Amino acid sequence: MNKDYYQILGVDRSANESDIKKAYRKLSKEYHPDLNPNNKEAEEKFKSIAEAYSVLSDKEKKINYDRFGTADGRTNPFGGMNMDDIFSSFYGNMKYGRNMKGGDIRINVKLTLEEMYNGVQKKIIYRKLSKCEPCIGRGGETISCVTCNGIGVVNNIQNTPFGKIQTTTHCPNCSGSGQIITKKCGICSGNGVSQQEIPFEFDLPRGVMDGEMLRVFGMGNSVRNGVEGDLLINIIEIPHEKFKRVGLDIHQKINLTYKDLVLGNDSVEIDTIDNKIRFKIHPGTKIGTMLRVPNKGFIRENLNGDMLLEIWLDIPTNIDEEEKEKINLLKI
User: Fold this and answer.
1) Domain final residue pick, 26, 45, 72
2) Which of 106, 139, 260, 279 could form a Cys-Cys staple with 192, CB 3.0–4.6 A?
3) Per-residue pLDDT tens for 63-84?
4) DSSP code per residue over 260-323
5) 80/301 Cα distance (integer angstroms)
């Protein structure tokens, strides 16, 4: 699973270069191996802190990580996770204060069975709310909210029959942003975001399933003084004219002649998704028989499905008189 470098350093995604450096210095000093001799846990923590800082302190790596979840910018949204983790349920739309999260965006991507079998790179263009560049998503000139002291949340104390209960809610004065706009941005009119068309390329591995959902962190809608939501890509399988997938197996119906069924055939040519193969039909094969061709189905996480052949009789509709006479001579 991808590491959350912001969480490792204890900063949120809106942290600037100074905040990141300050957090790194503090944590690296606390967990430095020289100050924690023979402490394996501290050593591993120190390595994670150094790795996180090496990415977040590098401008290009940080941009790649924020957009694609990897420092090198490779658009592999699966990030080494297994398929169950990749398409797991996603979390809520916002957190308190400055960690407010923009809305997620859901789109459908239709794939042919061949694309799902081989894996494919897709390029899409979608519309999203992006941070306004002139005001850096702040909405204009701002000052800290006096109600919440720039924190974005306020504490309320209520008297109940069980005693006093304290609750924490978004600050009503700044809507949880911690900032009050004193002069609105002329481009976004104080919203901090604007609609944009975003091109995005991503790789799908072979064996992806219909109905599975891919989550791409930080590619959803932006929100003023907050972090981006996620892009949720729903996989839809386009029905195939010949093949039908059931799990990792691929089904197809093949029509054989009466002669093939009765006498057998050592070399019947059939189609698979990626090529053609020769298959043996034994004498006396019955209609409706299901034959299995091993390892000609879908491949997923080192598992390999089969090709299942459902046998049907190919009945000719246009026959001449000579052919009719030959059929009538048959005693079976």
Assistant:
1) 72
2) 139
3) 778 777 777 755 444 444 434 3
4) HHHH-EEEEEEE-SS-EEEEEE-TTPPTT-EEEETT-S-EETTEE--EEEEEEE---S---HHH
5) 11
**Residues of 53-84 as b/e, b for ≥16 C-beta within 10 angstroms?**
bebbeeeebbebbbbbbbbeeebebbeeeeee
Amino acid (one-letter) located at 329: L
Of 72, 90, 111, the domain-final residue: 72
Q: How far is CA 253 from CA 22, 37, 207, 280, 298, in A?
A: 66, 68, 22, 15, 17
Residues in the chain: 332
> 213-216 and 163-170 as β-strands: parallel, antiparallel, unpaired?
unpaired
Residue 26: CATH number of its domain: 1.10.287.110
What pTM value is reported for the model? Answer: 0.58
**CB half-sphere exposure, 229, CA atoms < 13 A:** 21
> Could you report the per-residue pLDDT of 7-46, keeping only the tens digit for each?
899 988 888 888 888 888 888 888 887 677 788 888 888 8
